[in-house]
Amino acid sequence: MSKEYLTFKEAMLYMGFTTYDSLRNTIKLGLPVIRFGNSKRISKTAIDEFMKSHTVTVHPTKEVANNE
């Protein structure tokens, strides 16, 4: 069974980030964090939805957002 709720370190690995700064910036852009007590978790489903909603198609001369 795969875990739904990931630690920050696990979320970084899942997203392919190599630094905490990348994860912090993604959270600032709106990736939801679950807090309970002193623990913080990120849902895999939330990551997948966030990444899908921020997907863009890059053309050699311009960038077009997928959600436009």
Order of helices and strands: EHHEEHEE
Strand order of the largest sheet: 1-3-2
Unreliable runs = none
Rg? 14 Å
Q: What is the general shape?
A: elongated
What is the total tally of β strands? Answer: 5
The largest pleated sheet is described as: 3 strands, antiparallel
Specify the number of helices: 3
Helix percentage: 25-40%
- N- to C-terminal distance: 36 Å
Percentage beta strand: 15-25%
Q: State the secondary-structure class.
A: alpha+beta
Q: What key attributes describe this structure?
A:
elongated; single chain; alpha+beta; two-stranded antiparallel sheet
What does this protein look like?
With 68 residues, this protein is an alpha+beta fold. It contains three helices and five strands; from the N terminus they run βααββαββ. A hairpin with a 4-residue loop joins strand 4 and strand 5. The relative contact order is 0.17.
What topology emerges from the helices and strands here?
Layout: E1 5-6, H1 8-15, H2 20-28, E2 34-36, E3 39-43, H3 44-53, E4 56-58, E5 63-65
Antiparallel strand pairs: 1-3, 2-3, 4-5
Short structural description:
It is built from three helices and five strands, in the order βααββαββ.
